[in-house]
Please model this.
Amino acid sequence: MTQSKKNLEEVNIIIDEIFLDKSIKKHGNFLIPILQDIQESYRYLPEEFLIQVAERLQIPLIDVYGVATFYQSFGLIPKGEHIITICLGTACYIHGGTNMVDVLTKELNIKPGETTKDKKFTLETVNCLGCCAISPVMVIDNKIYGNLTRDKLRKVFYRFRENEEDLKQSEI
Amino acid sequence: MDNNFIKRTILICRGSGCNSMNAGIIHETLKKVIEEHNLLNQVEIKLTGCQGFCQYGPQLVVQPDNVLYVKLKPKDLNEIAEKHLKNNKIVKEFLYKDPKTGESIEKKDMIPFYSEQIPIIRKNCGIINPEEIDDYISVGGYDALKKVLNNYKPNEVIKELETSRLRGRGGGGFSTAMKWQFCLNNPSEIKYVIANGDEGDPGAFMDRSLLEADPHSVIEGMEICAYTIGASYGYLYVRAEYPLAIERLKIALAQAEEKGFLGENILGSDFNFKIELKKGAGAFVCGEETALMASIQGKRGMPRPRPPYPANSGLWGKPTNINNIKTYASIPPIILNGGKWFSSLGTKDASGTIVIALTGKINNSGLVEIPMGTTIRNLIYNIGGGIINNKKFKAIQTGGPSGGCIPEQFLDTPLDYQHLTDLGSIMGSGGFIVLDEDTCMVELARYFIKFTQNESCGKCTPCRIGTKRMLDILTKIVKGEGTIKDLEDLEKIANIVKNTSLCGLGQTAPNPVLTTIKYFRNEYEAHILNRKCPALVCENLIEYHIDQDLCTGCGLCKINCAVEAIEGEKKHLHNISQEICIKCGVCFSICSYKAIYKKTNEN
Model:
């Protein structure tokens, strides 16, 4: 079986699971939850999957594409293995959030929205994580780091890079 | 029996804020410490949601002593167990210290941050375990639902809300009783209830913390609404950026269903209601009600013109009641204590309380719930503990990117919908950001317009193009390239966008620009006429210099300068070359002797 065929089967499983979710079946619309699941599993929405979703849901591909390009959490190009998000909400912004972006732009050699060549890291910014009291804030793979300075940020990042799997945050 | 055997409960804050400051490790360590000290029979450890005082996390409260310990490290717990839990001696070292007097405050309620608060919406936050429905029930949870199902006709619920004068807590401030009445009046057999938890304003975290700390209060409020208007299906829409809130809501919904508070024949009545959790996909505009509904229907989250209002034609064209989650959380206390009680709090314009996320350059950042009508001064200087490093207050920004900046001369304004609207701002959902003298108001306006420009869905022209044009002009001004004509154009475009945009996003997007021009025109003029940034923020208009008297020649700045703009021998005065300097500010923040200073352009 080729890789892409195998993947398409996986997408069908995702679609079937959501079809089977009774609560959605009764009242809801499937498109966004399906795309969210694909995005979570593959870190982007591959073109052939979008075609498959349109076929299965019997809606025009343009509608699927329209939704896929509207929301920030969807992407049409693969994201890195780890996603680093810098908050640029107002509180983070006035406490120097843009400095944090500068540090990581330099360390990773990519701009926000881009992914490193080795596909390890994607750098993103977000408009607010609601952790304003401990601003500026960064998130690496759902773990929040607060009260950052340039130095603290570098420390956290280096430690993460060295020991990706088992990061124990101590006195940060 | 002596005092040594007081049965105590330790409430440990596990909101997102504290979690990110290692509350998880504190929690685990605490369990071990309690065991090691043989206190298992005397001390119960309870996980809670956000306790509000986020700046001082990780934190815990020892009850019944009512003692709050702040900024804890794992090693501190042994001492607390040994001294406080075993020997009833409060450990002063870990108490909150008043930033003005430096004195430690023992009792939580004596801390000004807490003493002025009247928690209604947040009454259970930080007190109950959000992952245990029994905890919610033990503080009177679902009693309001029982009361309504047993004793109230739909009309009577609305009557009670009318008496309470409750207005929507999402920002618009529309009468909740009227909204529900419209939906009730509609004869349709299918109706929907939606709770809007798509808290997108940067600088706001009231909804996140409420969902993390007391999810059942929102569920109960939605149920009472569903019963009143005659709906049997509801949606709880939450931002994808709030994973912990989503997790706790999932648990809460499952537990409510298991206990018979959700589902068929709720509490033995013929009332059926189900709630589906909807995770947002990242779009600020989805906080607007028609866009939010489009998103639930699986479409691009774009708003549509109103009328028809959701009460007549909402989700899938059916009558729909949509409220902010804080509005729903206000319902159970109103039902239990009566509309009169709620109405007695606050002002003529707005009853009850307002939940505020207080952040920015303020000593006590966190969540507060205060009666409507509290003055801004009281909020900042008493509850908030004043400005960080005793700097000068410049403005308070309310209502996020839809709101405005309120300057010093209005510090004694009472907080309610009308007063804030009169000043050109809005109440919004409650994100308040305090700005000090180091904030450039022009740059701040640019920041907000960049945000709304980015989040504009592009459907209507004024918002799509107007925000872009405003951003262009503001960018020009902060670079020192603006003209007085630009300022006139900016004001004109702002007014057009405000008056002609399709939805709330565009209609309110110019507020930060209009209020900063109104109250801080001198700052705009300084940027334009003198090419100066008085707050020393805008890169193009400032220079970094080294103070000859303070520089010790340590060389720290030189090593850290990325562009090698700093020269000087070790132990001799250093100097910054203005031609090479890119104004990144690293040297300024790194210098141990505060020898580096900023000044605005000479010419």
In short: Residues 167-172 of chain A have pLDDT under 50 and may be disordered. Chain A touches chain B through 52 residues (CB under 8 Å). The first strand of chain A starts at residue 82 and ends at 87. Chain A is about 50% helix and 10% strand.
